[in-house]
Amino acid sequence: MRITAVEPLLLQTAWRDLVLVQVETDEGVTGVGEVRIVNHPSALLGYLADAIDRYVIGTDPFRTTDLVTRMVRDEYVLPGEIGMSAISLIEIACWDIVGRSLGVPVHRLLGGEVRTAIPTYANGWYTVDRTPEAFADAATAAMQGGYAGLKLDPFGAAWQRLSRAELREAVALVEAVRGAIGPDAELLIEMHGRFGEADAVRAARALAPFEPGWIEEPVPPGDATALARVAARVDMPVAAGERLHHRHEFRELFERRAVTVVQPDVSQCGGLGEALRIGAWAESYGIDMAPHNVGGPVSTAAALHLAAVLPNFRLQEHFVTTAEPLVAESASGLPARSDGAFALPGGPGLGVALDRAAIDRAPRRSTRFNLFQPDWHRRGP
Fold it and tell me: Fewer CB within 10 Å of terminal CB in the chain, N or C?
């Protein structure tokens, strides 16, 4: 079997830019991949335009390790977010092709499931006024979608430091959400790399009474020393890793014991094979894995197949799409959620199918994601 064509597709929505690919083979089997790319979809499409002819056409889709190796090694310069997203897109689509051609779900190819339900939490649900009442109402509505918990960034547009007033406001929002979802649901605090070490610790300690399941990216990515120092000073798990793209970048997190939970994104770290290796590496350090995922149905499906096989899996992120029906409609076949978990994905392959009509009728728009502008969390349909 050989790859004969790759078609990139763009779906721009209120929250995010999704780049998808359809990968065709000479045996008529087609696979799909997807990535949420921040602010630069044209750069990714340009990268793909070069890489498809150079590396992908004529490749055996069963040889994913060889494909990824060539796409990293032969470029000489180390690929960053754009390059690794392109590689991941193709790699995930290849797994889909292999599963479809063999008639089995991808998780069976990755070693087989160790769980039949995949606990999940909601992100992207708090597109409301930054008041305790509005956040509480939105949290209640989100939990009705069949989630085990919620994640939120309560810090507004804060950068580096929090004033006393900003910290009080964040505490009030988290207190309201905890009250709305009850004591047993997971409550996860996203910091988006906003703070220096001291203010990250101060914020975490102020939120400790609400028993967060973790604080996420308390300091900017790439500073493993500061992250480890924060982890040593707070009495709660620390999560990070979504903005790392190569397995060697995770080594310092593991060796420094800087995280309790590691969060590679399957669609940006080189694909399912690389994510599986990172998960096994994390397990050897006693670190849990919670794959980052703010994409649509295709990247969610890929993350679920990975989560199904990881012994050290903790929770799966899912970006709610109630305000973005076009995302939900872009592909069908995602497993149902109930009792706080996704069902195990069925097969064959990823188990999802693109709806080209839904993607084609989506209007092109200018999507800008900037966490440091006022009301960044407010998004329209």
Answer: C
pLDDT reported for residue 365: 78
Q: Burial of 40 by CB count in 10 Å (0-12 exposed, 13-18 middle, 19+ buried)?
A: middle
For residues 155 and 377, the answer to whether their CB atoms sit within 8 Å is no
- Core vs surface per residue 275-307: b (16+ CB within 10 A) or e: bbbbbebbbeeebbbbbbbbbbbbbbbbbbbbb
Cα distances from 345 to residues 115, 118, 301, 307, 336, in angstroms, run: 11, 10, 7, 10, 9
3-105 placed in CATH 3.30.390.10: yes
CA distance 353 to 21: 12
Domain residue extents for the chain: 3-105, 108-350
| Active-site amino acid positions | 192, 292
Torsion angle defined by CA atoms of residues 114, 117, 123 and 128, in that order, rounded to the nearest 10 degrees:
-170
C-alpha distance across the termini of the chain, in Å: 41
Question: Can you tell me the mean pLDDT for 321-347?
Answer: 89
The residues with which 353 forms a beta bridge, in sequence order, are: 332
Task: Classify 178 in phi/psi space as left (phi over 0), alpha (psi -120 to 50) or beta.
Answer: alpha
CA 101 – CA 240 distance, rounded (Å): 36
Question: Do 204 and 218 meet the contact criterion of CB atoms below 8 Å apart?
Answer: yes
Cα–Cα distance for residue pair 335/359, rounded to 1 Å: 20
Say if pTM beats, i.e. exceeds, 0.90.
yes
CATH number, span 108-350 = 3.20.20.120
Q: Tell me the mean pLDDT in the region 219-229.
A: 96
